[in-house]
């Protein structure tokens, strides 16, 4: 620090508190069957046709025309995936990574795509429209639930049941993960090739609904009581009493109400299970907070692991959570009711510092004031404390 004893102009460097920026929450990873022999559109110069995307390799798609250039237009060889991607964009989605498989019931093939998805950090929603096999659905859940990620959410399709019971809709899937949600029933859309009305799984459309609600209201708002664009009907008309039977078990029903096809539920598969987060928006908000703070405090690895670093992290995280609270995502009339941040000697005792880690404990109130959900962020500090 300069000595201010003598008159003059002084220059003093002040450390800048890093600003934490919220990560994206609406980019989807979609998996579906596409045959090798699908008809591909002609190249603009007329020299031939586009080549179908390689098997198991994700392709970034930001509109349906791009999808057609990689996977073909609506046809028998890609029907479910094409309708699902179209429904994703029609319902508000803006970007998705799409990968094709030969057999959607082959969990090993789907797992190969999920490994490729791991390297794409922006993916926040995962679905395999039409995948009803329990092993495949479990692979999607485990992908989102694994400790190295935990920043993704799986959207599953319920079985094509003709009776509304948990067993009929879930099939043999036994998961109670709060990193996934299931939707029922299949929805009716128009096939632009044949003009027929067909039923398709809802997960691709729901991924678009998530993106729409994120963009218009925020990730902390439930993706429910919103219309499903492009849906003309439902494969099963669920009654209010039938919905009550399955809703608490994490099955979200799509219903026709007042002439509209509406998403009428926002529960995770962990609903009703002790220690699990019950609501989709709360789980996805926690994913958003965890990843945003984790990415926004990466600079800690270049700083000495001591009081100045702890104070910087505390200021950065507090400023970020204050903005989140002001946006209405956390409950409480005062910030201290909405969240707390602890990064000091209590979270960083000598054994933690000796291991090269700096640990921040964070509590947030996404449901009730002062009722905190607590999580920890650990960064590896490259420079030990002096």
UniProtKB/TrEMBL annotation:
Domain of life of the native organism: Bacteria
Pfam families in the record, alphabetically? Phage_sheath_1, Phage_sheath_1C
Tail sheath protein subtilisin-like domain spans which residues? 117-269
> Where's the Tail sheath protein C-terminal domain?
278-378
Q: Which family does it belong to?
A: Belongs to the myoviridae tail sheath protein family.
| Protein name stated in the entry | Phage tail sheath protein FI
Source organism of the structure: Actinoplanes lobatus
């Amino acid at each position: 620090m300069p000595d201010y004893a003598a008159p003059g102009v002084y220059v003093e460097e002040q450390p800048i508190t890093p600003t934490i920026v919220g990560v994206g929450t609406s980019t989807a990873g979609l998996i579906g069957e596409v045959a090798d022999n699908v008809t591909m559109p002609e190249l603009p110069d007329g020299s031939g046709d586009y080549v179908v995307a390689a098997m198991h390799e994700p392709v970034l798609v930001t509109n349906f025309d791009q999808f057609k250039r990689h996977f073909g237009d609506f046809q028998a060889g890609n029907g479910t995936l094409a309708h699902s991607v179209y429904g994703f964009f029609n319902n508000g989605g803006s970007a998705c990574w799409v990968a094709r498989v030969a057999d959607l019931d082959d969990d090993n093939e789907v797992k190969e795509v999920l490994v490729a998805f791991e390297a794409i950090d922006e993916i926040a929603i995962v679905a395999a429209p039409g995948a009803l096999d329990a092993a495949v659905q479990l692979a999607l859940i485990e992908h989102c639930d694994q400790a190295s990620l935990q920043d993704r959410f799986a959207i599953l399709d319920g079985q094509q049941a003709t009776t509304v019971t948990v067993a009929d809709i879930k099939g043999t899937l036994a998961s109670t993960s709060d990193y996934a949600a299931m939707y029922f029933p299949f929805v009716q859309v128009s096939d632009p090739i044949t003009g027929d009305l067909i039923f398709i799984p809802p997960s691709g459309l729901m991924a678009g609904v998530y993106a729409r609600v994120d963009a218009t209201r925020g990730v902390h708002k439930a993706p429910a009581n919103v219309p499903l664009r492009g849906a003309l009907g439902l494969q099963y008309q669920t009654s209010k009493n039938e919905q009550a039977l399955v809703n608490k078990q994490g099955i979200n029903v799509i219903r026709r109400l007042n002439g509209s096809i509406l998403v009428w539920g926002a529960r995770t598969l962990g609903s009703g299970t002790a220690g699990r987060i019950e609501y989709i928006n709360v789980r996805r908000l926690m994913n958003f907070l965890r990843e945003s703070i984790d990415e926004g405090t990466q600079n800690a690895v270049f700083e000495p692991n001591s009081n100045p670093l702890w104070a910087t992290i505390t200021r950065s995280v507090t400023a970020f959570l204050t903005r989140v609270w002001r946006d209405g995502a956390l409950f409480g009339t005062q910030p201290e009711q909405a969240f707390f941040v602890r990064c000091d000697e209590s979270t960083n005792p000598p054994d933690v510092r000796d291991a090269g880690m700096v640990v921040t404990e964070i509590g947030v109130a996404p449901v009730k004031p002062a009722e905190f959900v607590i999580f920890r962020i650990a960064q590896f500090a490259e420079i030990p404390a002096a």
